[in-house]
Amino acid sequence: MLAFQESGNGTPLILLHGWGLHGGVWQSILPELEKHFHCYTVDMLGHGQSQSGEETFDLYGMCHALHQLVTEIDSKEIVLLGWSLGGLVAMDYVCHFPSAIKKLVLVCSNASFCKQQDWPNAMDESVLDGFAQQLDQDYKKTVDKFMALQMFGADDYKNSLKRLKHSVSSRSEPSIKALRNGLHVLKTTDLRAKLGNMRQPVLMITGEHDRLMPYIAAEDMQRLFKNAQSHMIKGAGHAPFISHADLFIKIIKVFSKE
After folding, report:
1. Gap between the Cα atoms of 52 and 122, Å rounded
2. Which is deepest, 69, 104, 140, 175, by most CB within 10 Å?
């Protein structure tokens, strides 16, 4: 079962976090989002408060756990938003349940996070391999380093990183197994061939200085989707909802009403 917090009024908005984090990462923008959306901030399996059972993080388990939540919401107006690893989960979910949500928002998320011969705008495998090796040596240092990399290059880097770390401290740390599995998903998943099957409107939000998901990859993905648009936020890194919160919220509000 997925743990989640529910708040606000309006269009249902499910928010999926990135690797090593939890639903609390959205807390800095939640008060504003709640004015326009009925928000569901999810802790993905193995993260935050979703660690009570034997389930751990993988795409299959997340897909079916997420569908339980979507079924409970019981609305034809759901907007599903996934950031980074959460974006992969969101894309995979829509592949399996194509009519379950109305709109999809991908924040700094790539259909293939690792470079392929025909997909150069992505990460080198060595980056993820490095994090995997460091996990066993120093878990906390590895996650801290990853958070710093997410904010690198963003306007007001130090304050943005401080806000991200503060939000992460609000809930339990993820399990080591969930972290390893998340890195494996980022390294091995390639959903490019499935993007053309998605019929709902898709919005991709990227950061100009993102070191983990080059914004130009969204342009590559846009050609694969049937109905997609992209918006690059200048001066942002991998977490534009923290460094450029007002603009981020405005973009989502406009998209949800189109």
Report:
1. 34
2. 104
Give CA–CA dist 160/71, Å, rounded. Answer: 35
CATH code for the domain defined by 3-257: 3.40.50.1820
Q: Which one of the listed residues 22, 238, 243, 256 is annotated catalytic?
A: 238
**Cα 19 from Cα 9, distance rounded (Å):** 28
**Choice among 210, 220, 243, 244 that is catalytic:** 210
Question: Catalytic site residue 210?
Answer: yes
The answer to whether residues 26 and 17 touch, using CB atoms and an 8 Å cutoff, is yes
Note if the pTM is more than 0.85. Answer: yes
Domain residue spans of the chain: 3-257
Q: Is 144 a catalytic residue?
A: no
> In whole angstroms, what is the distance from residue 28 CA to residue 203 CA?
21
Catalytic residue of the set 84, 109, 167, 243:
84
Tens digits of residue pLDDT in 150-186: 777 666 767 777 777 777 776 777 888 899 999 999 9
Residue 140: the pLDDT is 75
The per-residue pLDDT for range 70-79, each reduced to its tens digit, is: 999 999 999 9
Active site residue 238: yes
Q: Reading across the β-sheet that carries 3-7, which strands appear in turn? A: 3-7, 37-43, 11-16, 79-83, 103-107, 202-207, 228-233
Closest by Cα among 41, 97, 85, 81 to 204:
81
Written as one letter, the residue type at 20 is G
99: helix, strand or coil: coil
Of 212, 219, 221, give the one whose Cα is nearest residue 240. 212
